[in-house]
């Protein structure tokens, strides 16, 4: 290393004086070695400046907020922290600021990424082919500037439609697009990108959750197609690892169960909404409770599984009947049944249930599994209960050693009660084997095949990846998975851009309609929607027209 | 509990809250503008997505607490990168005591190969992986100034503000870092 090398190095960042520049130019004219050094340093700079941009984790904003509020580290799992649990006492003044912060700090859509991934040829799903038959083409609406321009694609297996979020010229809009009808503008007062959507079994209501961007929260709504009535069901902290994200209609469509985690103190409770009366009510009062799923209808009483998070979580079957909603209550009191485990997700036909076991904690104020987290599959017995003792791991090949396990994951049953999907897996441990489980993949299994979830059940990597490369968890993120009733078609909402782009448009997502390829046959992917919009989630079923 | 009907950002503010809101708005802007570049810078420092997220989180928590010390908007970038750099260096040092086995840098360089979890997936393309491996073999201060220069496109003056070094010291350090990086890239087959 000599003085000339230093000049060469400084020349790359424009840190040379005029005199130094002339000295360097004269030297380079006569020195091949230094010209090679300049070329090597320039190559190096080009390589480093071209390193891939990785989007920030979606939970960063709420973690920062949580850390500010609590004066301690956020959602970092405690077993990963170098110094163990780090806590700093939050002063009253800090707490006061934090309360205001909760209101003001994260009140914008996410606009943190500086680039929008451009899909490469290898990862780009097949282009949708317009067909003259059934389509999801919206008819023009008065607010055309904010409306999406979805591609025309055929969808089988009774799709009902999908949500679209657009941001144009600073104007945000959330619409519901469905075949053969004008898109419905949902005049939501707050919230932006849709995270989840569930159609009531009777087709009269659409329940959905909207992200609230940097605020780190989500808003839940119910929308009645008849009368275009929108009901605000409340604001909640984001649901890390899918915990607390369930929105579940009772089989008779009378009730919607959901969970809200208070943005002010992180207490979580289950809530109910009665479709007929429009009443919404807090069901639990324990501050650690989450609504899970409903049992199939049996007479006039609806039965809801409610879970209490704890080091050893437990679940309770709560009866809901009549016109008056119960609560607030401790679900353990007067429960019809109970189970060791968390978030029992009962298949629509009631013959199987998936529930979580493991030790839970609240790193950063959010409940998640700390050690041994694993979903299990149990079958119904002839007496109408579940054989929880005989439950088997949903991921049979994964060995829970040394505290390894899932932090959590999103799970959903298909309407056929046989198919199920697992995504957003957060596995805290070494992969078993390499690449499994993969947080970027969607695992799609069937109870009937007996294998449950293995690496082979993953959808093709191109189904979920963006142009940043197959399997690149930073390049895309699966937001939602909806399944058709035939057990071979799925609709994935995959985030493809975080927004910004000079404010031209907001966060973007593709709706990918997948026909699962059997054996070695690749999945067939069709893309729905505009590239400059957030497309999804989709809902399957039948909407009752107003 | 703040649920249906709770006060929102649209609720009229009292005068003291308006002052707090102004401060929060400033922080909001900082987070919006810099969270992605800071995360990427830290990611390239530590080569681990989870650690990078933790460090970025800590960086912004510290920034929030020190926000009153930021008097000049123009220096916000250097100020934030200084906090991020110090937080990353502290974390790297702390892990030396926590991780008792082997060379910490080498361990993480290998980790991208051995563990195709989220961290490894971030480094999934071949060139990116080789680049990251080469970076991980540099001394932390060499890696730091090289990233600030070539990834963040900072001048020697700005790097000096971040690292607390003089202009001349940065030029010397950067030159040494480039020389070392050249050797490491050659070892990775990424040089002419």
Comma- or semicolon-separated keywords:
heterodimer, A: 546 residues, mainly beta, 4-stranded antiparallel β-sheet, 27 strands, elongated, B: 192 residues, mainly alpha, 73% helix, 0% strand, globular
Radius of gyration of chain B: 19 Å
Order of helices and strands of chain B: HHHHHHHHH
Write down the overall mean pLDDT of chain B.
73
The total of helices of chain B stands at: 9
Biggest interface found: A-B, 86 and 76 residues
User: Terminal Cα separation of chain B, in Å?
Assistant: 63 Å
Number of strands of chain A: 27
Stretches with pLDDT under 50, minimum 5 residues of chain B: 1-17, 97-124
Number of alpha- plus pi-helical segments of chain A:
6
Write structural notes for this entry.
The complex is a heterodimer of chains A (546) and B (192). Chain A contains 6 helices and 27 strands. Chain A is mainly β. A 4-stranded antiparallel beta sheet of chain A has the order 3-2-1-27, with no helix packed on it. In chain A, strand 4 and strand 5 form a beta hairpin. In chain A, helix 1 (3-12) crosses helix 2 (18-30), helix 1 (3-12) runs parallel beside helix 3 (32-49) and helix 4 (60-70) runs antiparallel to helix 5 (92-104). Residues 72-156, 467-475 and 500-504 of chain A have low confidence and may be disordered. Chain B is mainly alpha-helical. In chain B, helix 7 (140-151) crosses helix 9 (167-187) and helix 8 (156-163) packs across helix 9 (167-187). The chains are: A mainly beta (546), B mainly alpha (192).
Question: Would you kindly provide a brief summary of this structure?
Answer:
The complex is a heterodimer of chains A (546) and B (192). In chain A, 13% of the residues lie in helices and 33% in strands.
Write the layout of secondary structure elements.
The complex is a heterodimer of chains A (546) and B (192).
Chain A: H1 3-12, H2 18-30, H3 32-49, H4 60-70, H5 92-104, E1 159-168, E2 171-177, E3 184-186, E4 194-199, E5 205-211, E6 217-224, E7 229-237, E8 247-249, E9 255-261, E10 268-274, E11 280-282, E12 289-294, E13 302-308, E14 314-320, E15 337-340, E16 342-346, E17 352-361, E18 368-379, E19 392-393, E20 405-413, E21 419-428, E22 443-446, H6 461-464, E23 477-483, E24 489-497, E25 508-515, E26 524-528, E27 534-540
Antiparallel strand pairs in A: 1-2, 1-27, 2-3, 4-5, 5-6, 6-7, 8-9, 9-10, 10-11, 12-13, 13-14, 14-15, 16-17, 17-18, 18-19, 20-21, 21-22, 23-24, 24-25, 25-26
Helix pairs in contact in A: 1-2, 1-3, 4-5
Chain B: H1 15-46, H2 49-65, H3 76-98, H4 104-114, H5 118-122, H6 126-136, H7 140-151, H8 156-163, H9 167-187
Helix pairs in contact in B: 1-2, 1-3, 2-3, 3-8, 4-6, 6-9, 7-9, 8-9
């Amino acid at each position: 290393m000599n003085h000339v090398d230093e000049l060469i190095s400084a020349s790359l960042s424009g840190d040379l004086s005029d005199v130094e520049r002339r000295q360097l130019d004269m030297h380079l004219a006569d020195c091949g070695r230094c010209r090679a050094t300049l070329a090597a340093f320039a190559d190096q700079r080009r390589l480093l400046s071209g390193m891939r941009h990785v989007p920030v984790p979606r939970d960063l904003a709420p973690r920062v907020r949580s850390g500010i509020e609590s004066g301690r580290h956020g959602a970092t799992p405690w077993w990963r922290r170098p110094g163990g649990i780090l806590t700093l006492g939050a002063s009253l003044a800090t707490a006061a600021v934090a309360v205001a912060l909760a209101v003001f700090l994260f009140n914008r859509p996410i606009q943190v990424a500086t680039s929008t991934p451009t899909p490469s040829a290898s990862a780009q799903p097949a282009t949708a082919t317009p067909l003259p038959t059934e389509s999801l083409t919206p008819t023009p609406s008065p607010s055309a500037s904010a409306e999406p321009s979805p591609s025309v694609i055929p969808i089988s297996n009774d799709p009902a439609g999908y949500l679209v979020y657009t941001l144009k010229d600073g104007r945000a809009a959330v619409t519901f697009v469905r075949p053969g009808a004008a898109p419905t503008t949902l005049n939501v007062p707050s919230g932006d990108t849709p995270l989840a959507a569930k159609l009531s079994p009777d087709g009269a209501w659409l329940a959905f959750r909207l992200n609230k961007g940097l605020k780190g929260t989500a808003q839940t709504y119910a929308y009645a197609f008849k009368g275009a009535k929108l009901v605000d069901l409340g604001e909640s902290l984001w649901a890390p690892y899918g915990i607390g994200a369930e929105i579940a209609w009772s089989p008779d469509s009378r009730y919607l169960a959901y969970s809200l985690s208070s943005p002010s103190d992180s207490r979580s409770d289950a809530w109910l909404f009665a479709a007929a009366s429009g009443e919404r009510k807090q069901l639990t009062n324990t501050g650690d409770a989450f609504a899970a799923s409903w049992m199939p209808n049996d007479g006039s009483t609806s039965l809801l599984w409610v879970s209490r998070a704890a080091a050893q979580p437990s679940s309770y079957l709560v009866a809901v009947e009549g016109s008056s909603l119960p609560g607030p209550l401790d679900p353990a009191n007067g429960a019809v049944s109970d189970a060791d485990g968390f978030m029992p997700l009962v298949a629509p036909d009631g013959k199987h249930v998936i529930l979580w076991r493991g030790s839970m904690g609240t790193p950063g104020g959010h409940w998640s599994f700390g050690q041994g987290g694993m979903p299990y599959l149990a079958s119904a017995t002839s007496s109408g209960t579940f054989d929880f003792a005989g439950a088997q791991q949903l991921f049979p090949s994964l060995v829970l050693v040394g505290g390894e396990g899932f932090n959590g994951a999103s799970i959903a049953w298909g309407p056929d009660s046989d198919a199920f999907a697992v995504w957003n897996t957060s596995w805290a441990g070494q992969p078993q084997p390499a690449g499994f489980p993969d947080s970027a993949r969607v695992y799609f299994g069937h109870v009937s095949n007996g294998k449950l979830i293995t690496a082979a059940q993953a959808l093709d990597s191109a189904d979920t990846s963006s142009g940043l490369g197959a399997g690149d968890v930073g390049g895309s993120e699966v937001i939602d998975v909806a399944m058709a009733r035939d057990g071979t078609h799925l609709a994935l909402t995959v985030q493809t851009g975080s927004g910004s782009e000079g404010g031209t448009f907001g966060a973007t997502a593709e709706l990918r309609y997948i026909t699962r390829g059997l054996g070695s046959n690749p999945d067939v992917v069709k893309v729905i929607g505009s590239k400059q919009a957030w497309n999804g989630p989709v809902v399957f079923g039948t909407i009752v027209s107003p | 509990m703040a649920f249906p009907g709770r006060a929102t950002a649209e609720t009229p503010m009292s005068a003291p809250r308006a002052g707090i809101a102004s401060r929060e708005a400033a922080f909001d802007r900082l987070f919006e503008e810099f969270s992605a570049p800071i995360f990427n810078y830290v990611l390239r420092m530590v080569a681990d997505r989870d650690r990078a997220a933790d460090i970025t989180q800590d960086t912004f928590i510290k920034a929030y607490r020190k926000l009153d010390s930021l008097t000049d908007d123009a220096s916000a970038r250097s100020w934030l990168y200084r906090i991020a750099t110090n937080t990353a260096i502290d974390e790297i040092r702390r892990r030396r005591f926590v991780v008792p086995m082997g060379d910490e840098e080498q361990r993480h360089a290998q980790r991208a190969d051995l563990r195709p979890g989220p961290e490894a997936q971030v480094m999934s393309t071949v060139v990116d992986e080789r680049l990251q491996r080469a970076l991980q073999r540099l001394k932390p201060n060499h890696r730091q100034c090289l990233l600030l220069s070539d990834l963040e496109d900072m001048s020697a003056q700005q790097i000096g503000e971040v690292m607390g070094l003089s202009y001349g010291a940065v030029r010397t350090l950067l030159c040494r870092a480039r020389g070392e990086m050249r050797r490491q890239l050659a070892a990775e087959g990424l040089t002419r």
